[in-house]
Specification:
By secondary structure, the protein is an all-alpha fold. The chain contains eleven helices and two strands; from the N terminus they run ββααααααααααα. The protein has a two-stranded antiparallel ribbon with strand order 1-2. Strand 1 and strand 2 form a beta hairpin.
Length: about 200
Amino acid sequence: MTGAPGGTVLGADGLRRCGWGDSTDDYRVYHDTEWGRPVHGDDALFERVCLEAFQSGLSWLTILRRREGFRAAFAGFEIGKVAEFGEADEERLLADTGIIRNRAKIRAAIANARVARDLDGGLDALIWQFAVDPDRPAPRTIAEVPAVTPESTALAKTLKKAGFRFVGPTTAYALMQACGLVDDHLADCHVRTGGRGARRRADRA
């Protein structure tokens, strides 16, 4: 693969991608088919909130390769089911080698399910009010992609006020990137230039 430092790279398949998106097969599929595309639905967004929290301090690849294990362990991330988890479930999760066995993060996921279950208006509406202007200029290099923005800071503050845990501004921005609230595919990435960005804007309208 070739490309300018910090810019896109040209993959073996002839497609130009954000650098990280061509580094492994797992990342390539995730980059091309999921990252930056709009995610809606309370359960779907709850899954992303949980996975971003578990990712804290780790690589996203570590989480990505365990995602099916997480889904099995957390009842498909159905908010109503996870909200009913008790001490026995916590111990079961701590023994599950298919996930990241961190007690604080496991407890946070269960607590966050209870918050999401009781949230007025739902999680989808809460999160999507912080979507970024889809016409914001596209970053040309990874150096132009922020780790924190005013929107992610506001989202984190709102989530924390509601009672969510493990939702700082950096985690909130990663969530926004992953779920399509912001399009951080680089300007000449094939996902962006292939017209999907226009479809994302239509989805948000």
